Amino acid sequence: MKKKSVKFVRAILVGLLFTVCLGTYSQKIDTLYYRFGKAEFMDNGTRIVVKRQFFKEKLFKLIQNIGRIGTLHQPLINSRRLNLAAWEHSVDQALSGDIGHWDFYERSNQWWFFGENVIMGYRFAMADYVLWFTSKGHRKNMFSYDYFFEGISFIKVKTYEPRFIKKSENYTNQTASSSIQNNSLAEKEQLSFYGTQVFK
């Protein structure tokens, strides 16, 4: 009987750890893009490729909940619904090339969340955590006793801007088709990072 109780408690603890750290809160709201973690957009000839950073999200959740438990706060449970809300805003920020809390009240009413952190330009989870932690407003969201659920989205964005490259004209005995290829179209790649975290 005692062994069964120990196994039962162990199973509960493992389940809680899995839920808190890996974000398996069972809300079945998802989209095709979010499920596969990649999306591509076109904006006035500029190609924008968005890729979700799965490992960075999991690592950030783990770091944050260790910090919350260490300061006697309840760990935040990850919500797929809130993850989707954060993903959509991260993508909107990537498409605009800037960060902000625009349309906060409309989005918070739609997805039912009460706080939000946004960030841009950092590759690693620890850098995002430190920056938010050293900001009074962001830290207040991260370590509030009022929040029990959170959603997070970190994305890597590659922007490909079209540009024409003029090749050397020092050629002889070229065919007409070769002269057409003298000017070619190339893409200039730019890499950036965006993040959004919402709380409920």
Description:
It is a single chain. The protein has helices at residues 2-22, 32-36, 54-70, 80-96, 104-111, 125-133, 136-142, 176-180, and strands at residues 38-43, 46-52, 77-78, 115-120, 149-166, 183-199. It is of the alpha+beta class and 200 residues long. The protein has a single domain (18-167, 178-199), classed as CAP (Pathogenesis-related Protein p14a), CATH 3.40.33. Strands 1, 2, 3, 4, 5 and 6 form a 6-stranded mixed beta sheet that branches. Strand 1 and strand 2 (46-52) form a beta hairpin. Helix 3 packs across helix 6 (125-133). The longest helix has 21 residues, at 2-22. The chain starts with a helix and ends with a strand.
Give a short overview:
The protein is of the alpha+beta class. It has one domain (18-167, 178-199): CAP (Pathogenesis-related Protein p14a).
